[in-house]
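Handoff note, outgoing to incoming analyst
You'll be picking up this chain. Sequence as last confirmed:
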Amino acid sequence: MKLLYDIAVFFYHFFIRVMAPFHPKARLFVRGRRGWQGKLKEKRDPDSSWIWFHCASLGEFEQGRPVIEAIGRARPGYKIAITFFSPSGYEIRKNYSQAAFVGYLPEDTPRNAAMFLDTLQPAIAFFVKYEFWYHYIDGLKNRNIPLFLVSGIFRKEQLFFSRMPWGGWFRDLLKAFTRHFVQDENSAALLNSIGIDDVTISGDTRFDRVASIAESSQPVPVVEKFCEGKPVLIAGSTWKPDEELLVPFINSREGWKFILVPHEVSLGNINRLVHMLKNPPLLMSRAAETDVTRYQVLIIDSVGLLSSLYKYGTYAYIGGGFGVGIHNILEAATFGLPVFFGPNYHKFREAVQLIGLGAAFTVSDTESFTEQLLKLLNNRELYEQASLSASAYVKNNRGATETILKTVFSFQA
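Most recent structure output, in case you need it:
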């Protein structure tokens, strides 16, 4: 099985290298890994103890971030190293001030894993949510370096739980972890069913992250001025199908304000969105140059602002529900916004639970979105109930970070 795994990893990276001249993200993926060992050696301080966090992309980084920052406060003697698999995580957080090293994870080969671990020599390692790289996990195990999974979530259809011959190989990956911090009882039960008992139901660290965002949120004066006290719909991390659902509603509403935050902020995609709208929108990159109050639609054509904008919203629409799955709905819920999203949400526990609480709503087209939203608009009591349920849900699920730190550092006592 290991041979098949190595072949799959080789061909994946080979395909990315072939695509690099033609695809910007593939090009970043390849270029970012060049000279990785020299970059790591340059940052490596042999007199310091290092903790390594690995995240697939930006979403997983945000999930690990509360733990990273809590360690920085509670254990300042450690230095933090962060690796990313995806350019969309690295490119946005490559200058993250809480880490002494931020880089790409080198290709998962025996040689790369050995060189990486021998160079960094981490005292502790954390993999966030989904990442299971065989040679790195095996290398950590062989060096007796504690390895923890943060905010893990498992489903019975995953390969770890398969009765096919390869299921055992994948189960051995999970058994190499010192402890799994999982989000829910179902994940713990699945791990227990395959003989893994080093499990703690800690909850999801994203609740700690979004709550801290709400508590420390700073004003964005130009957005505050743009909203001018009117009903505001914030559409976050939208893709084309989401925008095709929203734009007819936007074009038909008077007296509202709309903040659109597309997932893809390339010039071509922004221009496509601009041309869909009846009234010319304002781009955030030009907002300081004009009277923002005369515009109905503000398009955020940069990254990193979304979580700070939800405090200005009345309602939120979260993109991704017509693709592989919805983006982060907790960032909106923590500010008490009723949340709307497309039909592909069932793998997201928080979406299912918020729907059950009457704080979130799934929609399939413009008509169903309009109908659901107007119910809240025309019933103040129903809106307030949804809003309170959303914010209370986040508040009541905090605490995963504290649980993780207490458990992890008991291994270091």
